[in-house]
Write a structure and sequence with these properties.
The complex is a heterodimer of chains A (315) and B (190). Chain A has 315 residues and is α+β, with helices and mostly antiparallel strands. Among the domains of chain A are: 135 residues, Jelly Rolls; 73 residues, 3-Layer(bab) Sandwich (Phage tail protein beta-alpha-beta fold). In chain A, strands 1, 2, 3, 4, 5, 6, 7, 8, 9, 10, 11, 12 and 13 form a 13-stranded mixed beta sheet that branches. Chain A has a three-stranded mixed beta sheet with strand order 15-18-17, covered by helices on one side. A two-stranded antiparallel sheet of chain A has the order 14-16. In chain A, strand 2 and strand 3 form a beta hairpin. Chain A starts with 10 loop residues before the first helix and ends with a strand. Chain B folds into two domains: 109 residues, Rna Polymerase Sigma Factor, Chain: A; 74 residues, Winged helix-like DNA-binding domain superfamily/Winged helix DNA-binding domain (Arc Repressor Mutant, subunit A, Orthogonal Bundle), CATH 1.10.10.
């Protein structure tokens, strides 16, 4: 083997020195090669021994590569972080799906919701409706506060409306529920226009009442069971769907709340004794709030005035 | 690249295609030199052997990534150097507390010069001592150029500096060695 210390002085180094210095530098370069005094620190045997160890290591590494056990272990290690990420995504999606959808109808507006199974919910101003994002696959449970008209399509899951302490269960029908949490006595009215529903207050020992088309039943927490269904003019009950008003012997306080929601305004009723006095009125076409207040005040012998936020009714 | 580097890169091409014979050939050619180079950093022959063997194992495992456009020789020196420095970093305390720091270690190897060149033997020792007093960078470049047969481009790759800087270091080293040699000769004459 050629000895490396015999290598000549590279040109680019030599060129850096003055012409007259070059012979001397050449000698220094040549002699410095003598300093490589440990060039043979490894014997032939030591080199072969090193090579054998390297080859053994390589053989072992290569056989590991093809071993199926290690392949699977490697696969698990390599993809474990992907599995963790996937699990996190699944958990996030499930949490998202478990949080129900909530729809609140702004004051002054009516909203129609069309659900995935073709059922529709028409909701009056100020109504809140809540249902599962998995509707209708797990269940068809609807939470209601307010007034809404339901048109329910047939489905293997029963359609259940849960509202302020009672539920109404159906499989395929049309009905109206009026159930405002702030209504005096917490009255709930269920009116059926097509098919049949089960009206079930959430209280022990209360027998559900079956309501058929054209009938209405009411219930409040003071009653041991819902009222016997009575025939009712359903078009009057559903007048709100056309922005009309039909007040049948309704307490003044309820009428005021209704007006507040429909016209998105505030009405102060400064006549405590008038709150429970009932009123019957029909508006066959959408009317202005002033004309309705005019009528109420005329009938009840009251006055009203406009305020910065809405209206005030007084004696 | 110089002639030897060219033939090494010919081996590299075969190794890239998983030719184990070419790998053995490269090992026999470069192992002693790389061990000697590693001893410079580790001051221990056995440690140096281990580091260089690991370097070769890694080279084989990563043979598919060998860049044929670059000098495999300087790549090997570069890998060995990095591994030595990593080893020192990871075992700093160990080395400080042991005899491994003993710089005299390299001289404990029997020097293999023939009887008839006893003068050369003496001069070699002198040169060795002078080289060891060079600034680190100059010493490094000079040794790679003089003893390892690397060209400027290859040294530049190993040390991550420019070829021009390599040349400057070697020139400075030679100037210093010339002064030493001159002084030494004048003393001999007296």
């Amino acid at each position: 083997m050629k000895k490396k210390s015999d290598a000549p002085l590279p040109d680019q180094i030599r060129d850096k020195f003055d012409e007259n210095l070059r012979p001397e530098i050449n000698i220094v370069w040549e002699k410095s090669g003598l300093a490589q005094n440990y060039s043979d620190i490894l014997s032939e045997d030591e080199i072969e021994d090193g090579l054998k160890r390297v080859n053994d290591e390589i053989d072992e590494a290569e056989s590991h590569k093809t071993g199926s056990n290690n392949k699977i272990a490697g696969w698990i290690i390599r993809y474990s972080h992907i599995a963790v990420a996937a699990a996190a995504v699944i958990i996030a999606v499930s949490l998202f799906l478990l949080v129900p959808k909530t729809a609140t109808v702004p004051y002054g507006e009516l909203v129609m919701l069309e659900l995935r199974d073709g059922s529709t919910i028409e909701a009056n101003s100020g109504t809140t409706i809540r249902y599962s994002r998995l509707y209708p696959f797990l269940n068809r449970d609807i939470e209601l506060n307010g007034e809404a008209f339901f048109s329910v399509q047939s489905h293997r899951n029963p359609f259940i409306v849960r509202t302020n302490g009672a539920s109404v269960e159906v499989t395929g029908t049309e009905f109206n529920i009026r159930s405002w949490r702030d209504e005096p006595n917490g009255r709930i009215s269920v009116t059926v226009t097509q098919g049949e529903v089960q009206f079930l207050p959430h209280q022990p020992n209360v027998v559900p009442v079956s309501i058929t088309a054209g009938y209405e039943s009411r219930w409040n927490p003071q009653l041991s069971k819902p009222t016997q269904p009575e025939p009712v003019a359903t078009e009057d009950v559903l007048a709100w769907r056309e922005m009309r008003f039909v007040f049948r012997e309704l307490p003044l306080i309820s009428i005021v709340q209704e007006l507040e929601r429909r016209y998105n305004t505030t009405i102060e009723l400064d006549v405590p004794e008038a709150k429970q006095s009932t009123l019957t009125a029909y508006y066959s076409q959408p009317a202005s709030i002033e004309s309705i207040l005019d009528d109420i005040c005329t009938v009840k012998g009251l006055r009203y005035t406009q305020t910065t936020t809405g209206f005030r009714i007084f004696n | 690249m110089n002639q030897e580097s060219d033939s090494i890169n010919l081996l590299a091409k075969k190794i890239l295609h998983s030719d184990l014979d070419a790998f053995d050939q490269l090992f026999r050619l470069m192992y002693p030199r790389l061990v000697r180079y590693a001893v410079r950093y580790l001051k221990d022959k056995q440690l140096a052997c281990d580091v260089v063997q690991e370097t070769f194992i890694t080279l084989w495992k990563q043979r598919k990534q060998i860049d044929l456009k670059k000098s495999l020789k300087s790549f090997l020196y570069h890998m060995v150097k990095n591994r030595c420095l990593n080893f020192i970093r990871d075992h700093e305390k160990l080395i400080v507390n042991s005899d491994l720091m003993n710089n005299e270690l390299t001289y404990t190897q029997p020097i293999q010069f023939s009887e008839s060149h006893s003068d050369d033997n003496e001069l070699g020792k002198k040169f060795r001592a002078w080289i060891d007093t060079l600034p680190e960078r100059q010493k490094e470049t000079f040794e790679l150029s003089r003893f390892e047969g690397l060209d400027h481009r290859e040294i530049a790759d190993v040390l991550n500096i420019s070829a021009k800087t390599v040349n400057n270091h070697i020139v400075a080293a030679l100037q210093y060695l010339r002064n030493c040699y001159e002084t030494h000769q004048n003393e001999e004459k007296k």
